[in-house]
Fold each of these.
Amino acid sequence: MALLSIRDLSVKQGETLALDGLNLAINEGELVALIGHNGAGKSTLMKTMMGLLDFSKGEIVLKNYNLSEDPLNYKRRVVYIPEQPFLLTELTVYQHFQLYIDSYQRDEQVLTPVIEHYLQQFEIQDKRDAFPLSLSKGMRQKVQLICGLLIDADLLIIDEPFIGLDVYAQRTLVNVLTDKKACGQTILLTTHQFDQLDTIMDRYVMLHEGKVIEEGSDYQLDALKRRFD
Ligand SMILES: Nc1ncnc2c1ncn2[C@@H]1O[C@H](COP(=O)(O)OP(=O)(O)OP(=O)(O)O)[C@@H](O)[C@H]1O
């Protein structure tokens, strides 16, 4: 049985039918890249999976938890890292980590060394007491990433993880995702940067006008890259 099943999902964004009867299944431990041209429906799908957008038709089920029927149990098993960092001006970097840990009911003591590890890895160890307004765009992106990476949820969803990161941070993130995958983490991400995915992706799913139009393995990635060039 798939870890996540999405069946016949339709979502409107304003007057646009952004998702149109979409079906998708993701197995435990898979890293799936959601791809497609601008406006294909990738972000809409991710936001809907997090319960941030209503859907008019279909269902989303993670394990046995149906998003519509049991949103609390569903949502505490999913972590979403948005493309645009969403940080609170009144909280320091470290307080964001504490807020995340608290909201997912994890143990801060257990995660303290993990926070330190990520602060070092992403080279923002001197920013722990800084407020978001004093951070660069890339630094804010790193803070948002660390918040999500701290939580070992059943499903990690990342919207455009590489945008805004320098090459070192991009490489660090690929290493972190590789480690997480080796530990059995299931990951769904969107990207336009296929080169980053060569070593970590199991499968791509291509959206077009709110539908899945193609799926393939990492072996087919080269042909795909040529089509997108
Ligand atoms: N807030 C909104 N109001 C109205 N229409 C929207 C809104 N957000 C998205 N849409 C429309 O929904 C469709 C899907 O957009 P979505 O942002 O999901 O695409 P995407 O695949 O994530 O694109 P990109 O690669 O540019 O991020 C598009 O036709 C878009 O114009």
Amino acid sequence: MKVLKFGGSSVARPERILGIVDILKDYYASGDHFTVVFSAFGGVTDSLIEMSRLAAAGDDRYGEAFQAFADRHQEAITALLPEGALRKETSTKMRKSHDVLKNLLYGIFLVREASPRTMDYVLSFGERSSSYIISQVLQQAGIPAEYLDARKIIRTDKTFGSAKVNFDKSYEQIRDYYAEHSKVQVVTGFVASAKGGLTTTLGRGGSDYTASLIAAGLKADAIEIWTDVSGVLTADPRRVKKAFTIPRLTYAEAMEMSHFGAKVIYPPTLMPALHSRIPLYIKNTFDPSFPGTKVSEESSSEDEAAVRGISSINNVALLTLSGSGLFGVPGISARLFGALAQKSVNIILITQGSSEHAISFAVQPSDSDLAKKAVEEAFAYEIDRGVVNAVKMERDLSVVAIIGENMRYQPGVSGRLFQALGKNGINAVAIAQGSSELNVSVVIPKEDENKALNALHEAFFLSDYKTLHLFIVGVGLIGSTLLEQIRNQNDYLRSKLGMEVKVVGMANSRKMIFDEEGLELDTNWKDQLMTKGDDADLAVFIGRMRDLNLSNSIFVDNTANDKIAGYYAGILDESISISTPNKVANSSSYLQYQRLKSIAAKRGVQFHYETNVGAGLPIISTLQDLLDSGDQIRKIEGVLSGSLSFIFNNFDGTRPFHEIVREAKEKGFTEPDPRIDLSGKDVGRKILILARETGISMETEHIELKGFLPEGAMDAPSVDDFFSVLEENTDYFTKLYASAAEEGKVLRMIATLEGEQASVGVQAVGPDNPFHGLSGSDNMVVFTTDRYNERPLVVRGPGAGAEVTAAGVFAEIIKIGKFLS
Ligand SMILES: NC(=O)c1ccc[n+]([C@@H]2O[C@H](COP(=O)([O-])OP(=O)(O)OC[C@H]3O[C@@H](n4cnc5c(N)ncnc54)[C@H](O)[C@@H]3O)[C@@H](O)[C@H]2O)c1
Ligand SMILES: N[C@@H](CCO)C(=O)O
């Protein structure tokens, strides 16, 4: 025998009921013995409460509410049963039954009172109506079904609203009734009766309870709870998109999950069946072939995930009793919790450190003032004497919990929990873990709840992929190339690295656009940005990124803008990592550079800027590796400008200088403003950053910059004017080239750092110079160190260009993603 239960959502509309009829026909055809318990049609219990409330308040609109209730059931009958005798019989029976309800409501209206006893009777009409109608529909479908009013079989006391079951009597009645009735019994959930035939109800989860009692009474083989979700999921799917069905849970795990708000089942009411060790299946009415979740006493094997689910309580208040007067005094917690019990305050979580200096406990926010008062009254004497502090109350908190019986066998689970929270900048306000190790609960700020659930889900359910949420400012040359690379690489990232990159926010200097689910990166993205985007506003962009508060958020600055750099400190402080090719932040004051590094370290987030020097070449990371491994830098020499390298490698006097500069710009080698390259400022910034990486507190003005441009070039008010000046000075540049060529030399813009001295300037170098043979947009950096002394360490390759630079930024995004694992 199986006991099936269908909840309100499964019978909310006639077409859903027809789906259930199909499911039951399959059971019947397969020869299974079963009985079915139904809840009221979805929303009906609430409507019965509402019409009673109106009637008790003397509001005659209760009549309309009643009529809607009656009509809904008649409409269901018409929709579910063809015209004929059975429909007529069903309709008449319902009308008679509903007349009783109408009279009852009128009585409530007259006496202006709906006592719990009356309410139980009123509410019983929901289950009685749904079950009766469905029993008739089943008959129509060829199943020999029979309506069973559970008041005949389940006996309770008279605690109306949440009656206590008389198990022995109920089991006896269940057994007797089923022994005499061989048809498929269609049972009203939730309702029962007390001595004298008084109608009672079973409280929260009542229909589950009915199924459980019948299963225990009949010693059934299984209980099936049919609902509108595919079993118990690893987390609330409304909050965690990647949540998936847990195939197996122990009773204890299911209990923990449900206490934390996974309202699929209500295990306390299932206790009778659980005591009889009857396995329980949670199945989806809308996807009947899906296996769902099996809850039984079989614990998961050790090779299955230790953490079975992640759950949360959305809103709690945390109260803390602290003070020296608590230490070593027996009976403190008895007094504390006794005082709370007296006021019927339910405690959600308790924690006390072994210093015994403070006891914290979480309660429902609605209980918090009462709890604070109760505890302060109980400890008034100690508080007066100053040995115990006034109760501290923190609001707007949530509890997130990881759940699983096998956690007890595995060290490192809580390590992973706290790492996932920490890397996402989520503060653990309080922590609780019982010695059963079935549940580790962490109290966190409420605003971080979704982020925490997603971060924990990614940390514990590795079968899934991790999602990085990108916020990209600057979608010009580098930014758009980066977007293309992300689009092309996403499948590979998913399959090989278990990572998915979603661009959630995007902005250029004019527009910005967001999509929490990830913006489409097809060829249309620019149109979308320009036509659907809002006017760009950096502060708003960053505020939105902060408010979305998504796990694994990364900010990418692909601009050359100086204002954006001013936001980095705040972004890092929000525990959001940054990757940027923009050199402005690191080449502003040394103090600012230091501050950004400190904030990143303090917050445990990543600040990456490899592309600040040498585009995609591993220059900064090589330098950091040398330093980290204890090497001493003696000298750094480099051609650090891709555009100047390209210009000097291609300028052979046959074409005017300005044409080659223009070509460098068109090829995407120059800065958005090429004057920054040609002036040597860009190279200056790069050697400054390298100097700072070695630990020197250098400022821009400490760099000796020997420019090579003719006088007045840098006074040009615009880029176009600048090109005009270059053109006017064609001869000047040709001579510059010729004088080097006469000596068999070439021109190179070389940056040098030796000791604490840095210089940048154009030099004419001969074939014996390592920089002589460069080509294309090559950069080359020569590190002379204690270890690389006789033969220096050289990094060489293209030092500018969209593909290599964007790839450098992309690589950093992946690096941050791996760090966040
Ligand atoms: N081109 C290269 O080879 C190379 C190599 C290494 C580093 N970089 C650096 O990459 C960065 C971008 O260079 P690019 O060539 O892509 O420049 P670009 O001019 O093509 O793009 C800059 C983008 O930034 C946006 N932007 C500017 N100010 C903004 C603001 N206030 N708010 C929002 N968006 C803003 C622009 O609208 C544009 O989308 C620069 O910092 C540059 O130094 C470039
Ligand atoms: N404009 C820069 C880009 C790389 O930082 C250059 O020419 O090197």
